[in-house]
Structure formats: C-alpha cells, structure tokens
Amino acid sequence: MTPPRFIFRFLVFVLLFVVVAEGWLRWVMPATQQPAFHQSRATLVYNADPQVERNGIATEGRVPRVLAPWHINAAGWFSPYDYTRRQPGGHLIALYGDSYVQGLSVPQSRHLDVDLHHDLAPGVPVYAFGLSGWYLEQYVALSRYVRTTYAPDLIVILVGQGDVGGSLRVAGGFPYWWYITPSGSSYREVAPSQVYRLGRKAALARKSALFRYLRYNAKVQLPFVHGGNVGGAPIGGDTGVDAPRPATAQADAQAVAAALPPVRFLLARLCAANPGVPIVFAARGARYLPVGAVASSALDPEMEALREACVGSRQCHFLDLRTAFSLDWAQHHERFEALDGAHYNSHADAVAARAIAAYIEAQGLLGGAGTP
Amino acid sequence: MLFTSYRYGVFVLVAFALVWLVVRLARGPRTTTVALLALSYVFYALWDWRWCALLAAITASGFLGGLWLGRQPDSGRRRGPLAVVVVFNLAALGLFKYFDFFAGSFARMLGHLGLHVDHVTLGLILPIGLSYYTFQNLSYVIDVYRRTLPATRDPLIYACSLAFFPQLLAGPITRPRDLMPQLARPREFDPDLASDGLRQVLWGLLKKMVIADNIGTRVDAVWAARGHANSLDVLCTAVLYSVQIYCDFSGYADIAIGTAKLFGLRLSPNFDHPYFSVGIRAFWRRWHMTLSSWARDYIYISLGGNRVSPWRRHTNVMLTFLAIGLWHGANWTFLVWGGLHGLYNIVETAFGRSSRGRPVAAAGAPAGAASGSPGGASASGSDPAASRWSSLATGVVTFAAVTFAWVFFRAPSLSAAFGLLSRLAVAPAGLATYRPYLTLLLASAALFIYEWLTRGWEHGLAVERLALPARWVAYLAACLLLLLTGYLGSRSGIYVQF
Predict the structure, then answer these.
(1) Which CATH architecture has domain A33-363?
(2) What are the extents of the domains in chain A?
(3) Chain B hits for A2, Cβ within 8 Å
(4) Sign of the torsion formed by the C-alpha atoms of A94, A95, A97 and A102
(5) Which one of B189, B472, B484 has the shortest CB-CB distance to A3?
(6) What tens digit of pLDDT does each residue of A65-101 get?
(7) Is the ipTM here above 0.90?
(8) d(Cα B31, Cα B159) in Å, to the nearest integer?
C-alpha cells in the first residue's frame, strides 16, 4: 500500500465514522434539536422561526438524555398556546425570562407559564417570552413589541444573576440583541447592529445531528463556525445553582452600589415603556437554604440592587423566590434541578409559579392596582 | 498544540503527506531527515518560536561535544569536554527550571535563621520539552564519553533525533543511539506499521480523553476544595489520581509512539502495565521506563551502582530517586515523592524481597537483569514458587504505596498534601453523593480488566490479527466512545509541564 492509498483509506474511515455517528446521534442517542431563529426587520424581535420547524426534542449531556419535547407557537415562542391580543376587560400576563422561561428541560404542559396560568383563578392567560441568554435590556426592548401586540396588564420577569451585567455592551456581544452602554453620567440604549438571518452554512449545519451534538450537547466551540453559534441564540444565562451568600460582606455592598445605576436606568425605561402596568421581578437564588436563613443571606449583588431599586416604587415589585424554595425543600425534600443539573425541573416551576401567583393575588396586581 | 487538539491531527496529516512525498521524490534518507527536522522545528515554533534557539543551542552543544569527545583518545582527556557539555546543559535546565525555586528556598531558609535577604527571581517560563531533550542530549554525550557510541558526524540526523516532534512535548526520552540509526536508514513506507501507529494513537486518545481527563476534572475539584473533603473523598481522589496520571502520561506516550510509526520510526516504549507490578522495583521497570533507565544508566551507575557497600548502594538509590523527583519540577513535593520511592526501594531491598515483575523485553527498555531499576536487583520474571495470593497482596501493597506517594506529587505544596491527608480523619457524611466517584472508579476498573486481558499486546488496540470488518467495527466503537465520553475541552498532559 502506498502513502496516498493509506491516506485515502483513512479518509474513507473518517467518512464512515461521520455517517455512523450521524446515525447514532439521530436515532440511538438523539442530539438536542434547536429551532431555527430569525429576526424581524421591522420590530427587531429575535425569536424562533415557526416557518422552519415547530417541534423538536431537547436532550442534554454528552451521553444524550431526553429532557423534553418542545413546540414553537405561530408567533415563534416556546409555548403550547398561540398568542392573541388581550380581550377588552380581560387580563393577560406577559412572562419574560431567559432559559428558565424558555424551559427546554421541562415538558411544555408543566412550564412555569402554564403552571402560573392554572394557579391564577379564574384562568388568566400567561404568555411566555423567553430565550436562553436573555437579560434585562432584552426584556425592556421586547416589552415595547409585546405591549403593542398583546397589551398585557401585568408583567412578570424571572430574573437571576447576570441579568444586569449582560445588558451592558461588551466587546464581542451578540450583535442581534439590544444593549445599554454608559453615556455621560447615564446610559443609552444600543440597538442591534445586525439583523439575524439563518445563513446557508448554518441552515445546513443545524440539520446535522453530529454538529448539533458537538455544539449543544458537548458545548464545543467549533473553530470553523464564527462565534460557534449556528441557527440559535447563545448558550448562556444563569444556569448555576446559586450558593447562599453572606448578607453584609463589604465587597457585596460595593457590588450592589455599582450595579444600582444601570438597574435604575433599565427600570425607568421598562416602566416608561409599559405605563400603568405592574411589573413583578421574581428573583431566583439559592434553592436549599434552611427556613429562616433567607433573611440573613443576600442575593446576588445585581439582584440586591434590583430589590433596592424597587423599594418605594408602586409599579415595580420584587419577589425573592428563595423563601418559597426553602419552605418547599423543608416540607417535601424534593430537588429542583432538571437533568442538566442547573435549570428548574417541573417541580421547581410549580413552586415558583405558586409563589408568583400568591404574590400577585396578595398584592391585588390584577385588580387594577399598580398605577405609577 | 496539544496532542488531543484537532490542530495536532491536521499537523500530523500534513506532515505525513509531506514526508512521504519527499521520500518518493528524493534520492536518499538525508532529504527526508531534513523534512522531518524542518517540520519538528515548525511544530516547536508553534508553541513559541523563541524556544527554537534554545533547542538548537542544546543540540549544538551535544553534537559539537560529541565530536570533541570523539577526538580525545584517553578517558582522562575526555573529562574536560564532558564537563563542559554537562555543565552547559544542566545550567540551561537549572536556569529555566530551578533557579526561582532554589533562590526562593534559600532566602526562606535564611529567613528562618533570622537573616533576611532580597532574592532575585527570574520569572522565566519553562520551555516546553526542555527536560526531555536535555536528557536525550546528555545521554548521547555520556555514551560517547563512555565509548559505547561513536560520535556522529551528521548534524542533521543528530538534530532530528532530539527534535523529532512526537517525542518533543512529553517524551518518551528516546536516546539518540536508538533513533539515529533509524533516521540514517532509507525510509520505506510500511503500511502495517503505519496502521498500527494509527491504532496506538486512538488507544492513547481513549486513555487520555475518556479516562484521564474526566477523572482530572473530579480530582481537581476535590483538591481545590480540600478543606471540605472527608475520608472517602481523600481515598477516592488518591486512587483516581493514580489512574489519571497513568492514563494521561501513557496515553500521551501512545500518541507519540503511534505518530512516530506513521513516519516509519519506533520510539522507546515508556509503560508496561505498571500497576500490575509486584514490588516497587518491578513498578519502576514498567513506569516511565525511559526516565528510570536513564537515571539508572547515567546517575545510579555513575554513582557506583551495585558495586559498592550496601549502605553506599542505599544512598545511591536514594540520590537517584531524589534526582528523578527533582527532574519533574522545582518543588519540595516532587522531592518528597522521589524520596518516598527511594525509601520504598531501600525497604524492599533490605527485606530481601526480589521483585517478580515480568522482564521488560521491548525495544529500548532496560535491558537485562542487573539493570532493571536504579535499585539494581535482578528481574527474574515470575517466581513459580510464590503463590498467586501472595503476589496479589504484594501487588495491592505496591499500588497503595505508589498511590500514597502520588498525593505528594499532585499537591501544589507540602502543606496542601498534609492538609488533604489530614482529612482522612473526617468521616463521610453519607454514601448517596458519591456517584461521580463510582462511575469513574468503574470506568477505571473496566480499563484495568481490559489491560489485564490484553497485557501481551503492544497496546490496547493492537487488533491487527482480527479480520478487516471486525477491526473496523472495533475502531468505530472506539471513536464513538471517544466522541460520547471523551473530554473535549483543552486539557494539557500532566507530563507536558515537566
């Protein structure tokens, strides 16, 4: 055998392996499926493209395990329902969030928005607008579109670590999303610098189970794809299980103070974009604190800044979800992580939904309260 | 360019095509050697081009020193040139690897005596592979000094024997006397050897990426949070690190040896199932064989070897193992690790237990009885009188002793090592949270069972006797295993840093 023949045989083997791996990751251990994304030129809303794919299966891990099937509604959102404008005299809740609201780890019939819908009597529609990697500024920008399209009378935002930091423009940020950037003594909004279109290479790549496996299950930054992101939003957001933090650390106090200016700017714009609409920030955090330890344990500095910014506001409310989680953990001892070890499972979604529903009812937020 | 990166694969593929094209177009082996040398320097330059000058200087010192030594008729006159070359090489090693350590340690020692001195640290980055090619260079010069090897007059072949890229990062420390004759021969493509090389590369990748790197993330996590570890954490971590370092280093060696086979060259084997050793001296005949045989031939024998009084011999053994420890790096932890192995050897010799490991028969390995280890006892093969249970018990004790020593090897400092060992007194909270260990321990056990079953093979994927379809199924299964369970991040080899 000559060296060229040897190389040829080696390449034949490589090709055979690619075919076998493709089949294996398609039928035996399916690689995760991601919807195709698109962006409206008119509204600049970035979400799933229902024209390309409406259904798929999310899997997790190197040896892929099925998390849940997903469905994209007609408007391009991860939801079992199609969305319509709020009826006159009726109620409608818009739920914003990142991967926790997108909820790929949980069957859609047990998503946070579905649970919240069932928990609120008598059946208030809850529309979920969530995407992995989103942050506060994205919610501000999206809320303008949601307000004109669906006219919600209550906004719930599931927030967590990184939601403020992510809003600040940094070099190399995802060019299709909204940011804020320091401007003089305040900040200004930065619109997307590009409009996302699914390219030919990306469209082809997302059809390959091997590619999807490497990119999303194995989380490999593929060298031949710029930014490593083909046909999908960045994998990001707060995915860690937060650890309890001491309440009065000096460093935390400084971090809270540093986070306050952008938080106040974002809140002011969110309120201005949704006049008269109450906004509830439901903050994630440590899930297994002993009952009674929540008060003495601080949230992430960004969330503490958000809590502080909400004090005294009639429109903005802050709900610390840790209390509900610590009570539930003490009572049932049932864990809150999905198979990926980080995101909420259906039990956690149910706990969070109950806490949010109870808060809304206790505050009378659907009864006309919450004018600025 | 790590061996586990796709860049290395691309580099090897390009190098393979270029070298065999040159073989086809050129008339003699010299042009091929030039091509290999150029590719090796390009490979080294991809890490940091400035280090190429150091590699060239070390190579020049060995080559010119060899010529100088070759011209000296008697041993008395050869000592001068030898001293010049040895001092130059050790100075380079000392400057880059040990200066900061010794300067800092000396200043601290004076500090303890109440004398405060401002010491200078150079903050030099250790050039990758320096320890390996320096030792190859020294072995050549000493061989020429001892007249066991004639001085070469071909600088290209000599330079290539030191710089040949697969062995540059983490060995094996293939001596020029083994590699130069291969480089001087006309090259002919051997498809069987090349196929076996690919199989060995795949086997090395499996050990490195599936076992070592996955264990490594767990072990690193326990070491990082050692203040919270309990006895089960410590025991599992210690055992897993033993597996990790074996799979990491032997995996790298397999990739290097396999790559060399693609170019028609055979590097010295570096491992021979070391954890199946019965006795510590047998372990050292099977672990990092190229370093242990180097230390035996050029340190232990130079100190007098076995032809001295028992106490002097023990001292020589201890000094040799301390030198092996220090070779790994400038840290007291490596000295303690080397000292422990020296102590194990002395105790084993003193208690008269002859090691019963299999004699190492592979090419380039320690050859023959008295040269088996720095301890120098004979490797007599399996002792039929010894019972299987006795061998098993001795094997387990050997593994435990080696594992204990690895704790110091892995520790960032002596206090960290003792800190982790002190956690042995802390009882585990429960068994429910130890599933990660269980998976890794089971995977390790599966590997060792497989290695035991295939212990007569040159490497774990030496399946050339199988029919072609069966072979390809085995390769596909191995590749699929690599894809689904291999660590795909960038994790350097442990021995690359030495």
Answers:
(1) 3-Layer(aba) Sandwich (3.40)
(2) 1-30, 33-363
(3) 189
(4) negative
(5) B189
(6) 888 899 999 999 999 889 999 988 889 999 999 999 9
(7) no
(8) 14
